[in-house]
Amino acid sequence: MTDAPRDHAHDRAEKVGVLLVNLGTPDAPTTPALRRYLAQFLSDPRVVEIPRALWWLILHGVILRLRPAQSARKYKKVWLREGSPLAVWTARQANMLRSYVGERGPLVEVRWAMRYGQPAIATALDALCAEGATRILVFPAYPQYSAATTASVIDDVADWAKRTRRVPELRFVNHYHDDPGYIEALAAQVRKHWAREGRGRKLVMSFHGMPKRTLLLGDPYHCECLKTGRLLAEKLQLEDGDWRVTFQSRFGRAEWLQPYTEPTLKAMARGGVEGVDVICPGFAADCLETLEEIAIEARAAFLSAGGKAFHYIACLNNSPEGMKAMTGVALRHLQGWDTTPMSREALQQRQARAVAHGAPEQR
């Protein structure tokens, strides 16, 4: 009888894994680190959908020569002692998700990964499998689905699966843009800000931009952003003129989803709006796009155009309300998977069956 592989422990309780995934981050706020990160990020055909040969020339001939130094300077403005803000918050979210899910009794291993940069998705999936996970929920942290984000995570998981002998059962969280817990968590974040800082005349909800052609090709991202904005406004009982949905982070000369965030803020200031509150509901955690692009650059643009008060409302990060919402989404997708620890008797029975079928007894 052929012995089973050493790592094939028949008596080990099967676990359920949750992999929390965010976009990515460089290893350091330096030009070389940004060049490595941007090369990986901008080489993804889900992110840049133009002919590969043409894009390769643009990317390596122009962008990777100029943009890394520019981006490094921006990252230095927001870099934390512990590292990149996105990595710091995502790690804390994963730790709290493990705790929150554990309070309900299921046996779940939780890890986190980045689509671009470290820790890589493949590395985290290998670790979950090594810890006994035979069923894994992949949880992209993006509330709104986009082919450039959610689908890219699925691509990377699929690439890992192609190289893996024993592929676990896999599930994916595609979106949670209209999840009641998520909407309530956003509303709670706004209310806390208003209670602490006072309320501005307008609430601007800034989402990450995408090229307009993605909408025309059938990507639901634009519609899901608008629905998130509408549901949040309803939850806060705002009048139609009290809030706006905008889109930030344009790149290149093509038309992107509109209205654009910074021009909208400037127009508000020139039109007599003295105070605005800005929240970014498309980001589960604070990062360069929220802390530098909005809290620094957009603020400066609004004030220079005549505005008086600009307040950035932080992402949910690891707030109790945000973690409660994230836990609810995870538990809903885990339904039907047995996540309760096996008893000693059940483990012994499984071991006995394994030995009876020729596998060596595990000690």
Automatic annotation (TrEMBL):
Its EC number is 4.98.1.1. It comes from the Bacteria. Pfam families: Ferrochelatase. PROSITE patterns: FERROCHELATASE (PS00534). It is found in: Cytoplasm. Belongs to the ferrochelatase family. This is Ferrochelatase.
